[in-house]
Amino acid sequence: xxxxxxxxxxxxxxxxxxxxxxxxxxxxxxxxxxxxxxxxxxxxxxxxxxxxxxxxxxxxxxxxxxxxxxxxxxxxxxxxxxxxxxxxxxxxxxxxxxxxxxxxxxxxxxxxxxxxxxxxxxxxxxxxxxxxxxxxxxxxxxxxxxxxxxxxxxxxxxxxxxxxxxxxxxxxxxxxxxxxxxxxxxxxxxxxxxxxxxxxxxxxxxxxxxxxxxxxxxxxxxxxxxxxxxxxxxxxxxxxxxxxxxxxxx
Amino acid sequence: xxxxxxxxxxxxxxxxxxxxxxxxxxxxxxxxxxxxxxxxxxxxxxxxxxxxxxxxxxxxxxxxxxxxxxxxxxxxxxxxxxxxxxxxxxxxxxxxxxxxxxxxxxxxxxxxxxxxxxxxxxxxxxxxxxxxxxxxxxxxxxxxxxxxxxxxxxxxxxxxxxxxxxxxxxxxxxxxxxxxxxxxxxxxxxxxxxxxxxxxxxxxxxxxxxxxxxxxxxxxxxxxxxxxxxxxxxxxxxxxxxxxxxxxxxxxxxxxxxxxxxxxxxxxxxxxxxxxxxxxxxxxxxx
Lengths: 250, 287
What we know:
- By secondary structure, chain A is mainly alpha-helical.
- Chain A has two domains: 1-104, no CATH class; 125-250, Alpha-Beta Complex (Outer Surface Protein A, domain 3).
- Chain A contains 13 helices and three strands; from the N terminus they run αααααααααβαββααα.
- In chain A, helix 3 (34-56) packs across helix 5 and helix 4 packs across helix 5.
- Chain A is elongated, with a radius of gyration of 23 Å.
- The N and C termini of chain A lie far apart (49 Å).
- Chain B is an alpha/beta fold.
- Mean pLDDT of chain B is 95; it is low at 1-5.
- Chain B has helices at residues 21-26, 46-57, 77-90, 119-136, 158-169, 177-187, 191-197, 232-244, 261-286, and strands spanning 13-15, 34-37, 60-63, 94-98, 101-104, 107-113, 141-143, 172-176, 203-208, 212-216, 219-223, 250-252.
- Chain B has an eight-stranded parallel beta barrel with strand order 1-2-3-4-7-8-9-12, surrounded by five helices. Chain B has a two-stranded antiparallel ribbon with strand order 5-6.
- Chain B has one domain (3-286): TIM Barrel.
- The interface between A and B is large, with 46 and 52 residues.
């Protein structure tokens, strides 16, 4: 192996929780020991990647507290270091990692999934959203057969826990209590005017959107929605979703 | 040469940070230009909308932090393509990256990690810089790093390494005066000698920032945190640099404990005033 590649492999190992012995052997001992100098880089990597995770998962950080979050982040960074130089793209695996974290509340991974969806929505690439008037001009048969495609910024997060209520209660300046007994929530995440936003979906709306997202036609998705929620008033439900920037224009 | 014969210099610029997105959308900051970190503007949404407005108002420079030009495993083609897409979209006045590596084994370490300065690494960096310039179809500037360690086998002094890189690839140099100072203190080297050893025609941009002073076992270590005002010793290096590289525009960077935008604008204005004074002294000395 050429020396530079070997040096970078050994350095990487020392930065990600492994031994610094191999790289220390190549570092100049000058006033400070090589291990002390390597530690400066290790601290930087740990602190800045921990901050990146705390930026993407602020509610998770608030729910578990700073010390717990820092320790979980540190273990996560060593196990699943970034594969992309775009920090906003770091943390896709953090919700699953939290599912195995000691003494973490059961709802934590799903709250993290909601925060990840919000992060993706905020940064997703720009695509024109479908305008309701584009559909109004179609004859009814064409509307039923229509296949709508969600925008890259659109996501649905379902949980057996009231994740939206938990997320809302933990926004800056809020300190509400949440009754976990209220049951699960399905949350729609989208981008509106540059902000990532979310709201709870009723059971019929959720089925409608999930069916559309899976590539089924509007007519088929609508029947599935009514089946899931027999009392659902379809036209306003569809109109409300179309008025939200969740579907792609193309 | 007198000041009046030069092109009017571009006033100092500042780095655009997410903390100031609201403020720059509300009113155009009174600075000469702005620099973005490429990796923070590769998606869509609000950041790109802010960038589009800034680009309409001011000259913009794209500063990459994640290409890992010192990486022995070469460049990540997908990332290179995304950066090239951003550069094509906003047509910046300058594009720059670092003399450092950040990727090994496909892992991105989110740090500008040090290189041993050898013939082997010169070949690696030159190959990566050439590939970047070929992909962008333009010249890039390469920035000197701040470092906390040196390798026992690193026979080429850093300024000579940068000069050789510029000569071999045709790239320019982004000279970060705070980084020179930080590394000089951390390794007991001569910062002034560093500035003087850089070829005058290669420098296309100057960086300024603050650092944190730490102590470890009685040894002073400077940490390049971009979290405070520029210190006097770095201003002195800047005065020397603007005399040596009079056409290179100056940028103020601030990345931790980010103050209100006004404070950065004031720092940029201070850089303009100091630049003007340094050039006056230069002309007086030459007359």
